[in-house]
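Dear colleague,

Thank you for sharing your sequence with our group. We've completed the structure prediction you requested, and as agreed, I am returning the results in plain text so they can be pasted directly into your records. Please verify that the sequence below matches your submission; if there's any discrepancy, let me know and we will rerun it promptly.
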Amino acid sequence: VGTDFPTNADATGIFFPNSTTAYIAESDGSIAVVDLTTGSLTNEWDGNNSSIGSCASPDASVVAIVPDGNTSDLQFFNPATGDLLGTADLSEDPDWNSGTECAFTGNGKILVTDYSRTPAVVYVANSETYEYEETVEVDLGTYGPGEGAYSNSVNIMAGCKAFVTGYYGNIGVLTMPVDYCPAAALPDTGASASLPDTGASASVIGTSIAVSAGLLIAGTIALIVVRRRQYS
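Please find the predicted structure tokens below.
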């Protein structure tokens, strides 16, 4: 809309609760609130959790900030008010190292990747009680000399599947328990399964917009991850 404004730090995620508002999660744990009709920064909630990844619930009413290893606190915020809703301590897994990205399943769970562990894993936390639940190993296949099965991003797709990308390539596909996802995300095995798809639902459109916006900042995230891995 032709207006520039400063934010606290680099963006790690952009989420849209409606057509007039954007939430921008930042690498210092802050969340900026932007009025898209005017291009103005209306609020910026200061955070204390350095991060290279974030994600939002399907309706964008909750934003999760992924800890980058300086802490192990997966923080859940109400982006409209800046209130900290709860914290899941990922160090309950004794091999916890450094978070990268996350994704809400839409039914009370959140998945978090850790790019410093190999073989790759996904941490599972409860997005309603804010508790760590378990760690699941992800098969990312084999790699060449000097590489390894480190994970990078994670996305929840139709059919209650999680797609985990490898830092050096390959994609691990996790079929999650059916109670992890809302009924709308599960395969349709009834009579309507054979009917043609005549258009995207509002929720799908909203998710597509959020994913598209996320691609705009993917280059920034990738640069951060590459730099950290090169010099670690």
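Summary note from our side: Helices lie at 202-231.

Kind regards,
the structure core
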